[in-house]
Design brief:
Layout lengths: L6 E5 L4 H5 L2 H10 L4 E7 L14 E5 L6 H17 L4 E4 L5 H7 L5 E5 L7 H4 L4 E3 L6 H7 L19 H13 L6 E5 L11 H13 L3 E4 L5 H12 L15 H9 L3 E5 L2 H8 L4 E5 L14 E5 L24 H11 L7
Parallel strand pairs: 1-2, 1-4, 2-3, 4-5, 5-6, 7-8, 7-9, 9-10, 10-11
Helix pairs in contact: 7-10, 8-9, 8-12
């Protein structure tokens, strides 16, 4: 298929990490169609993580399932009217919500690509797109990119992108300076949106003490929600040498990207910040529990990944207990050994 597209809509309605893993599709389309305007339809909550990506012309936020009633209906209908007026000539769908079929049918784009999605086999869904593509590859990044196969593109950009402005780094650098940090700091994000993805708090405390004893400053980050801040405080209560917690829950996504980009190491569980670290080329140590550690592995060559399935069998995702910390089987000593291999033994502050 050899066409020159000028107005492109990409649809992805998932969480923050998923949005970062969509950026290679955005970049690939921009490289092949440099004059095209590329818009993204996504959840309102996830708009900040793509807010300064220069390849994107406009972001359109849709209310997620937490919203109900008239406001959600009004939001959908107003978006539908806006998108219809934009006269797209290419739509790329990377999501599985059934309501997208209604929206896509209202857009008169000549080319509409979608991944073949398990559970979406109705004629109404299938006939909403001009091409249904079987996703290929093991990682989400390669699966997403394979949806573009019908376009026959010659330039494939397979790196994720986390964009931030110079001012974002200047803001973070000033805050770090006031906290006594000039360089040689490690960022740890111990929290995740789902409890079963979390590691033991006391094990994070052991890791923090090990880093501190080697001369590294440790900066803890998290979302601003009360549950995450409680976890941060609980971890700190067991640390012999206290890490920096004043940035936890207090950075925008671009600022978080800048913070992680200038760290010597990032340590975290299966959540969006590990994908931010991969996108900004910061070395990563990540911990995975009862999730697909291959599909969701950070898109980086400089990563050490621990998976609880290497220590004992883990249940299939549809059978897991969401109140259980499957990562508990991973010992702190193994993570500390990985740190010792990745970072210089001693540093001078």
């Amino acid at each position: 298929m050899k066409k020159q597209f000028t107005k492109i809509l990409i649809i992805k309605m998932r969480f923050h990490g998923d949005m970062l893993l969509t950026t290679p599709v955005i970049s690939t389309l921009k490289q092949n169609y440099p004059n095209a305007e590329i818009d993204v339809l996504l959840y309102q909550d996830t708009m900040p993580i793509l807010s300064v990506n220069s390849d994107i012309h406009a972001l359109y936020g849709i209310k997620n399932k937490k919203n109900h009633g008239f406001s959600k209906i009004y939001n959908f209908l107003s978006l539908l009217l806006k998108l219809r007026r934009n006269t797209y000539d290419l739509v790329v769908n990377l999501t599985d919500q059934w309501i997208i079929a209604i929206l896509v049918r209202s857009i008169s784009a000549p080319v509409k690509l979608s991944q073949l999605i398990y559970g979406r086999k109705s004629k109404y869904w299938n006939n909403s797109f001009t091409h249904l593509v079987l996703a290929q590859g093991e990682n989400i990044v390669t699966k997403n990119l394979s949806i573009l196969n019908p376009l026959g593109l010659t330039k494939i950009y397979n790196k994720t992108t986390m964009s931030y402005r110079k001012q974002d780094w200047e803001t973070i650098k000033k805050k770090l300076f006031l906290l006594g940090i000039r360089s040689n700091y490690v960022v740890i994000q111990p929290t995740a949106r789902q409890f079963f993805k979390c590691w033991d708090d006391k094990k994070f405390s052991q890791v923090i003490d090990s880093l501190s004893s080697r001369g590294y400053k440790v900066v803890l980050t998290s979302s601003p929600c009360k549950a995450d801040i409680n976890i941060i405080n609980h971890i700190v209560s067991h640390c012999k040498m206290k890490p920096i917690i004043k940035l936890a829950g207090k950075t925008s996504f671009p600022e978080l990207g800048a913070l992680i980009a200038h760290a010597v190491l990032f340590i975290g569980v299966d959540s969006a910040p590990i994908h931010i670290a991969a996108a900004v080329n910061t070395p990563i140590i990540c911990l995975f529990g009862a999730t697909n550690h291959i599909a969701w592995r950070p898109w980086s060559k400089n990563v050490v990944q621990f998976w609880s399935g290497d220590y004992q069998p883990v249940p299939a995702r549809n059978k897991l207990d969401r109140t259980k910390r499957y990562l508990s089987i991973i010992p702190a000593s193994d993570v500390i050994k990985a740190i010792e291999k990745m970072l210089p033994k001693n540093i001078i502050l």
